[in-house]
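B., you asked whether I could sanity-check this one before it goes into the benchmark set. Here's the sequence:
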Amino acid sequence: MGALNSVIECAFTKAQHTHIRNKTRRWGRIFQRTCEGGAGPGLRSLMRLSLRSSAALLGLALLGYLVLRAGPAVVWRQLQAVGWGVSLIIVMGGFAQLIKTCSWRQACTCDISRLPWSRCFVGQLISDGIGQFGVAGKVIGEGVRISLVSGAVPLSSALSAGAIDGALHSFTAVLITVSGIIATLLLAPLSGPWRVYAVLLVTVLLSAVIFAAVAAKNRWQLVGHATRVIGRLPRLNAWVSGKQPIIDSAEVNLLAFREEAPASFWATLMLNFLWHLLAVLEVYVILRFVGARIALGGAFVVEGLTKVINLVGAFNPGNFGTYEGGNMLIAKILGVTGTAGLTLALCRRVRTVFWAGVGALCMIAIKRADLAQRNGSEDGSNSGAVLHSPGARA
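And here's what the prediction gave me:
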């Protein structure tokens, strides 16, 4: 499931800029079509935007309600208890982003010796920051990353690297999630219905992992075949057919990566595992700062269950409210106060916002430098043309 999402997200990135440009033009015709009685497409776009905005606003309202219910003064005291630990969390977050940068570079199947580390790191920061807003955010974030490295990495290689790294990240996340749920079943006093739901979720996730492993070993192009079936629908034929070669290329590279580059495959896999373990350490550090008596095993369970919350909150842009509420519920299951769970979620939000802001500032600086260099090259070319023109020689 994670591999399928990674391939599709990376494959659709190529058409992102064209899609955004067409969408802005479409908005200018919404009201005109409304007056002419042909407002169907524009109205549907307006409805989708309204639904997404409503979901985000409801999430923010839920977040505000959770803070009020826990008590703003209590939450503030918990945040003060973390104190200088926020700086430690931010540093750990930066190290985690560096690990993901290394993982993405390992997944590249081409020569990246001319690609600066700074661009890769900024691309990771931007991709991760925008990716917090669900599947659409991941697509846009990956597109921004590709635009930053486009001068040194071919498009096909950049797409494949995103698909490979995303698939292995999803694979390791599922293993951490399953382990966390199993540990919860063994240690936490869950009620009967919750145990049934947990067992069902573990069964589904393990089945997905086994199926993905078998499909990868036999090189089944499941995504390519699925999109071909979807492309047979009359309304989607033109839309899918233009992306089919990109999807096939990304999936072929993904399936062949383990055999063609085994060292890079295992390095990418281990780096993604290290990223998850660093997230476990982050949970442990924050909860210890707020006074919660929890061991590393408990932090591992919290992180595993948090990934379930992220999966459930994928339909909520930014996962506002649902992420915080889920952390409070997980904390109570493990015998920690709900306020500590809320503080954990807020501290991790701060870390995400900080590094996303750093990435945005760095991207602006890089784009300005690229623009200045391009303008300088154009000015030099124009000057050379003037000097070598017949009139200049005369």
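One thing to flag: Residues 9 and 139 are 5 Å apart (CA to CA). Otherwise nothing jumped out at me.
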